[in-house]
Predict the 3D structure of the following.
Amino acid sequence: MINVRLFKLEDAEQIASLFHETVREINVCDYSTSQVQAWAPDNIHFRNWVEVCSSRFTYVADDEGVIAGFGELESNGHIDCFYCHKNYQRCGVGSQIYRAIEAKAVELSVSRLFTEASITAKPFFQRMGFAVVKEQTVTRRGETFINYVMEKSI
């Protein structure tokens, strides 16, 4: 059974691996190999994830010790990282994480959630009620990517 809970320090290594594997194996359907290598480089360090995840409301979907996904909410309503493990795609994990994030946003009196969704994540956020504000091009480690600024009033 999947339990959605807040991030713990010991989650960082699994989160780093989940991010790397998901981008490399799932997002590669919508982005080139060179783009996903720039997005999720081989030299990713889990210590960076400790710092980032600890500074936000990071919700983790825990399947008896296996992290099935995670999503980060900043106090201004920005959803930054939001990833589901490659083996937990399209089985409700993302929806469970999103519900926890939205509930926290309501608790914080945030009236609008916003994100920059990848081509891959755009349909998920649309299903959660987000609308596309604009398509944009961003650059990371020398590669350019298309993503979508999306928002939802709550």
Notes: The helical segments are 12-25, 33-39, 46-54, 93-107, 122-127.
